[in-house]
Amino acid sequence: MLTPGRRGAWVAAASAVGLVVSVAGGATAEPRSPDDRTTAGPPRTVTLITGDRVHLDGDRLGSVTGAPGRDRGAFQTFRRDGRLHVVPRDAVRPLAEGRLDLRLFDVTGLVEAGYDDARRDSVPLIVTGTGARAAAGALATRDLPAVDAVAARVPKTGASGVFDTLVADPGVAKVWLDGVRRTSLDRSTAQIGAPAAWSAGYTGEGVEVAVLDGGVDGEHPDLAGREVAERNFTEDPDASDLDGHGTHVAATIASGHPRYRGVAPGARILDGKVCVQGGCAESWILAGMQWAADQGADIVNLSLGGSDQPEVDPLEAAVDRLSAETGVLFVVAAGNSGRPGTVNSPSTADAALSVGAVERDDRIAPFSSRGPRAGDGGVKPDVTAPGVGIAAAKASKGTIGEPVDPTHVALSGTSMATPHVAGAAALLAQQHPDWTGAQLKAALVASARPNPDLTALDQGAGRVDLARAVTTTLTTDPVSVALGTQAWPHDDDLPVTGKLTYRNTGAQAQALELSAQAQGPDGRPAPAGLLTVAPSRITVPAGGTAEVTVTGDTRAGTLDGVYPGAVVASNGLRTPVSIGREVESYDTSFKYTDFGGRPAQRASTLVIGLSNDVIAFPRITGGAATQRLPKGDYLVLNSVDGGDGRTALLPQPLLRVDAATVVDADARAAKPVRVTFPDPDAVETSGDITLSLTRGDRRISAGNVFLGGFGDRVATAHLGPALPAGELSTLVHAHATGAPIGRTPVNYRVAWVGHREVPTGFTRAPGRDELAEVRTSIGPRAAGRTYRYGGLPIPPDGGGSSTLLTPVGPDGDAVDRVLAEGLAWSWVVLVFDAEGRPEGMLRSPDRTYRAGREHLQRFGRPVLGPSLPRQEQPYVTRLGDEIGFYVPLWGDADGNRGDSGTETARTTLHRDGVQVGETPYAGSGRFEVPAGPGDFAVATEAVRLAGSSEFSTRVAARWTFRSDTVPGAEPAPVALTVVRFAPELDAAGSAPAGRVLRVPLDVQRQRGAPDGEVRELRVEASFDDGRTWSKVPVAGRTALVRNAAGGFASLRVTGSDSRGNTFEHTVVRAYKIRG
């Protein structure tokens, strides 16, 4: 049985059964990098397209706040492999129908793209459809005619109304996130045969190549006179190349340097800036593609990309449409993920010439992404080219690359391989000025030189060979043949055929003998008969064509997966072919019944793979849905809305798909969830139910959040078998506000943990004797700011849920009555400005309480400075050759981790005196570093948002340490020391003038890091905000600071340990001095 191909009926089929977001590695999940939770991270706030706000603590959910008018909203959450999604329930149906992009709710991805609230005040969208312009209205920022779309920016303050408009408009086909693509950066012209083309007189003269990248330094001597047009599509103020990537790419194409000569030194460059240092917005890329085509570019180089999905995305659609309408050739990087099935979009577009990277000896580069293409198993990349250690021009403002000489750097990546092929296409375009982009692509693929040790999914047709390309007269159409995927089971498979046309542009007829070769999914030769070609002998007339039939017969195969192969002609021409046998898969049927026994009109299902990478939202019609799933285990979250405000949650924590399966989601099986509180005046304000599931080394959490509480609207039932002990825990968490004590608000926070099964119904009424009383005090506080806080229950297995943020009283205090048994609690305080934007966050360590006891906790007391509060995750680690760095810069006197919004911030990392990374963040960054040992220095400096606090207005810190490559899958903590200033201050954060203040020095180290004995500490004080400093005496671990007559005291400490690691911390306005 044939599964529809990606470019034909696939999209219609996908929308009929629902949204399948990710299927990687067939039925078996590929090895993945460790979960990000192994390293701590800073807090973030992200506003969704619905206007709802998600507060993150590192990569974990902290709380959800509904947009105005959505204070009784409900949300579905799930977290797998370190990625958190928060999906409002009113977005689930349009997601399943394919009208919303799931990336809009990938909170981890939104932070990675720079779309959190600290860095962007709008949600960037691409809206497609005939009514896109009208629907977007004044929010539209750019027309994108290549895909019948507009780019739009939705202010976060009014996003909920815009969301409702867009999903209700029949003229809107789909709302996409305007996501961020990355440049594909991880001795060469001779390797691809360029000298032979130059000897034949071809330099690319008269050919225009558009470089859509981060800008081109047209003043570089290697590129003098080559840039003929320039356009900036980004938010940067000008088109300058600020990192050097675009200049390096352009020089690889067209440099005139005698030693570092480009492939096509006579070509002219169209410089379209579509990337900034943080990445390349998809709308910028689309606009640049349109501009390049309108300018008459012959070739467009795109050394960038992002992850591919089965659906045709806007960038892929634009490549195909502009190629067909204008004849331009898009040469696109395949990506740097290195594993099978990771080739990047838009190189996956049919018309794109997708380029992988090889070493100098034509071995595939370890980082080069490999096929097959998502959806149809098609062959991508199409060709390869040199991409390792490529030397080319260094932009005057460039920051990347290994220096070769003062004006040249070496870089690696498919970004570097791609311009080799763009340059090669320019030479062919000069040779054949009447050829279209499709013809240039066909000639480059037909003349490529394959590596016999690689398959077509690794290299396409092989490494580009210009010496052959300028003489080739025989090509094929198409350049590769995708025969699709036969659906499992394979006992009824039928032969599948595809047409292949040979085209001869020469003056002599060519007689060819043809054969077909294929490899199995295991890399071994495929069984005889799996791939054949007929006829096996043809003659292609001069100036004419000959057609053959390629047949794939998967009945001959014994393994499931993709079979790459080729039709090989006697003259050496190889045309890649692929055909697939679907892995063992079954149709899973879902049946939904409402509380009255009728087919449910409003229901939803989320399917999360436990043994693979599937995420699916089946499309439900008439109370039923069908989803095709590979054999394996799944977590299934079903819900049925009764239409009367009631919701039945019907999760099946373990669905084993090894046959055709039916999931019966019947709301009548669900029992009510009711939590009552000992205060008769208590008002329930939120409730959530979170599942934590552990399978092997994989941890998945998923749940539902109900703002406004459970009330009478939530019921639950467990579907499927109970799980073994230790695999499943369920946390039920409820919050209510009680009667205040004078001016002090009172909250009830209760939670319970269950195991093996999700409760079918849940009724609890905790008494006062089961609760501990926690009194919270926050201060000193800044004027004009609002302080809200919440408590997160932490069960023994480390799972958790979200919290409701509630205000403190006018005196900065609050009372919480919390369930003490079997749980720890972690507390979070957020500070908001007058417009409701978050400005800072404090987070406590996990704390346990005893029922019937009163406990006091304080937040925000100075000195606020760098700290390493106790927690499970290390703050600074190295894994392989990546260093993850996060040190909270505003930890308080009570051991709470602290972070703040900033006016300016910068963190840099140097290795052996050379800067290897920089971020615009306070005390945080993730840096790729050269392999092997080195001496590192990390420095960070940040200025707090004006008015957010009068304390610690500027914090700076610097550390040095030695580090080496860390093998394996577990990150290793880096040796790092923090010294906290811990004086006794009054409630206002001040100390008396003119007196000596004892400042204890609290030395903190990372857990698990190599120990080093701290040597003598040097402390300095300043009373003019750091303009001048004076040394102060230190007795043991206590500094003795004689205060000035007034103002503020600033403190600085420097020191080292017995291993040679050093540290320095500076806190400006550490405390006040009262006269």
UniProtKB/TrEMBL annotation:
Molecular function, one GO term: serine-type endopeptidase activity
Gene3D superfamilies listed in its UniProt record: Peptidase S8/S53 domain (3.40.50.200)
Family membership noted in the UniProt record: Belongs to the peptidase S8 family.
Identification of the protein by name: S8 family serine peptidase
Origin superkingdom: Bacteria
One GO process term, biological-process aspect: proteolysis
InterPro entries hit by this protein: Peptidase_S8/S53_dom (IPR000209), Peptidase_S8/S53_dom_sf (IPR036852), Peptidase_S8_Ser-AS (IPR023828), Peptidase_S8_subtilisin-like (IPR050131), Peptidase_S8_subtilisin-rel (IPR015500)
Biological source species: Saccharothrix algeriensis
SUPFAM superfamilies recorded: Subtilisin-like
